[in-house]
């Protein structure tokens, strides 16, 4: 069960985004470039800027330590900073590097690059390490069971759906000449999504399955909104 779950997780983290890239690249010229810029938007905004600041700079301030005692404040802070960082990076990529590559297919692969590289770098390595431990007879060293691994894999699907939807909103806004309006919408949705990870368990006692249901609903809603705006326009 555990090995099968890990294999499924690995497929979600690596094969799913790569397969999507291949399919969309065949349909639309320039899709590969959109994927790369989507991936870079995540790497630069999160791994090179936001996370180092959260881990190395803010802990030096008393206000940051105090804020962590209040789930509402801390959750909204984490959600808002994630939204500002990632959606601003998306907007810069769309505005400066994807001019003329703003079709629905470009938007889909733009978001897939963002959500895909997040899964590949943050979740996939743990899945691979777990599979190696199981195959070498060291299952006891892996700190999760098959069910938890499947939940983590499902969460990646919901996250990719959100990132694709948010990327569509930002790219559509740039294309339509209303970039700020759609950037604000993407930041707001991102804030609501990420803030819930702290607020729902801390205030309302929501468990893992409740969080995943919330992520599924919001991810699906954001993806639907992004596609709807493109279809409408």
Structural class: mainly alpha
**Measured distance between first and last alpha carbons:** 46 Å
Q: What's the rounded overall pLDDT mean?
A: 97
Helicity range of the residues?
over 70%
Task: Note the quaternary state here.
Answer: single chain
Helix count? 8
Can you tell me the overall shape? globular
**String of helices and strands:** HHHHHHHH
Strand content: under 5%
Radius of gyration, in angstroms, nearest whole number: 18 Å
Low-confidence stretches: none
Largest sheet: none
Structure description:
It is built from 8 helices and no strands. It is globular and about 55 Å long. Helix content is about 85%, strand content about 0%. The protein is mainly α and about 230 residues long. The N and C termini lie far apart (about 45 Å).
Question: Tags for this entry?
Answer:
single chain, mainly alpha, 233 residues, 8 helices
How do you describe this structure in short?
The chain is 85% helix and 0% strand. It has eight helices and no strands.
């Amino acid at each position: 069960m555990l090995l099968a779950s890990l294999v499924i997780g690995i497929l979600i983290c690596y094969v799913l985004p790569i397969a999507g890239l291949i399919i969309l690249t065949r349909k639309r010229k320039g899709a590969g470039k959109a994927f790369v810029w989507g991936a870079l938007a995540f790497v630069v905004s999160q791994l090179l800027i936001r996370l180092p600041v959260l881990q190395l700079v803010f802990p030096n301030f008393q206000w940051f330590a105090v804020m962590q005692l209040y789930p509402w404040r801390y959750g909204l802070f984490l959600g808002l900073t994630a939204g500002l960082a990632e959606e601003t990076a998306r907007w810069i990529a769309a505005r400066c590097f994807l001019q003329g590559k703003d079709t629905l297919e470009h938007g889909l692969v733009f978001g897939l690059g963002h959500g895909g590289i997040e899964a590949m770098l943050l979740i996939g390595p743990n899945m691979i390490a777990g599979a190696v431990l199981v195959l070498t007879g060291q299952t006891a060293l892996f700190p999760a069971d098959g069910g938890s691994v499947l939940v983590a894999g499902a969460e990646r699907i919901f996250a990719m759906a959100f990132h694709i939807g948010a990327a569509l909103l930002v790219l559509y806004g740039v294309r339509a000449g209303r970039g700020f309006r759609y950037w604000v919408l993407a930041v707001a949705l991102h804030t609501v999504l990420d803030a819930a990870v702290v607020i729902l368990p801390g205030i309302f006692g929501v468990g893992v399955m409740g969080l995943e249901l919330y992520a599924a609903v919001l991810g699906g809603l954001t993806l639907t909104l992004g596609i709807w705006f493109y279809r409408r326009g």
